[in-house]
Amino acid sequence: MKKIAFILFAISMAVLSAFDNRIQQDSIKLPQGFKFQIFAEGLGTARHIALTPQGNAYVKLGKVSNGGGIVMLQDADKDGKAEKTTAFGNFAGTGIAVKGNYLFASSDSEVFRYALDANGVVSNPDKPERIVKGLVNKRQHASKSITLDNKGNVYVNIGAPSNACQEVDRTKGSKGMMPCPILDSAGGVWQFNSAKLDQSYAQGKRYATGLRNIVGLDWNTETDQLYVMQHGRDMLFQLYPEYFDAKQSAELPSEVMFALKDGDDGGWPYIYYDHIQKKKILAPEFGGDGKKTGGEKAVDPVVAFPGHMGPNGLLFYKGSMFPERYRNGAFIAFHGSWNRAPEKQKGYFVAFVPFRGGKPSGEWEVFADNFAGVESIDSPGQAQHRPCGLAEGPDGALYVTDDVKGTIYKITYAK
Amino acid sequence: MLNSVARPWFNKFEKNCFVKRGSYLLLVLVVFTGINVFAQTASNSVTDKGKEVYDANCLACHQIDGGGVPMLTPSLVNAEYVQGDKVRLINVVLKGLQGVEVNGEMYDNPMPPLAHLSDEDIAAVLTYVRNNFSNKAGPIKKEEVAAARKATK
What is the ipTM of this complex? Predict the structure, then answer.
């Protein structure tokens, strides 16, 4: 009897394993012709990612793990799976970028650079140069995402440590502060010289303001302009049930993409964008009611998405591996919502927006889906993977990070 | 990935069935369900009030399953902070919480103070949380909330 039970058990194990593998391979959904490989896994809180022209991938970790806050992944045999992993950089953070002969990486209050050798390998992993220091870090919206232009500047997001600049953060009945004092040192993107050491606010420049929290940002080389994705404010219903119901609060405000110029203002905390009314709406903390408009001087978004999906990665695709319609278009990694509860959560996918001449040439669409591994998500803890960072490899492959388990997906296209 | 989590349980269940322990398992399930239904009926009014306060004030961040938000909001599921010291727990609601390590993790979003809620509402919601989301701890009385509130003033 026991023997039969064991045999049946073994058979069921084998069947389940086969089933498991099938699920594994199907675990993200892609358009026709695209496929993915697990480039690496188990890295921990894999935030942003950058690749050198040689194909070395550098991943920034949100928590230091095995003595490293940065992981270098190398795939020397080009089989689509990294066989060598090297950890260094004893600081946690989100931002990472490769420009010229340097790797740039940020903690939640500083930006460092490491010289790269001719093979695209960091030559002195224990001695980075600190180029920016002393940035606001109050935990909330503390990640300092970075990107660089072609003129030697680095752009650093300094997120507002606040939801809507109320006197008491996220508290019902607390007024909005006018003017919002947070904007002096946060709630914007700052520009610094990428080659000078130990700069802080005095040596930098507030390039754009009125941006609540930017996690995904990229320098668009086609238009030579900074593009950013904003995390919109939370809790319209919880703080102002007289103006918003739970459904409206789940959908609003829009998660927006801005194309920024020097001196631009995104309007936070005074206004937010409503993609249903297609208007800039006065925030209720500043006299709004969900209908009154505002922000005449604030820039209009380039693209507006449904609320709270958490755009953590932005990448303009320059390669030629993907079909022509993807060139110069924007990929956005949506980390996935929490502030849509009690409604179903949304996001947990990579979206694509086709662009022509720096402007959207079509509607946004879901490009890579099913990172969460479950049909529908009530609570973010249910998600098995959450997309966070994006990067393009020298061959035009798209890399996506996951900061739940530290899986790195490599997405390729073949006709 | 979900499968690998669910599988050990499934295998165990399956194995039990094969060695004809199915009926025993079923009996245990029936008895447990019975106890649960009884327990729930007994404290329905406090539970209803507590759930109502939870849905209005806590759910947005702590979520429908009490699971919180990774990296942003601590989970309430089988949580020491929830089941442990009552005064500490009451004070979290009265004063809010930020920049404190919970179960060895740091969380980025601040919890606002909810002192505007009545003693009765705070007692109800904490009793609800202490008996849901895989927690099992004694109720909190409105007098205990009143005492903690007085001590903070």
Answer: 0.84
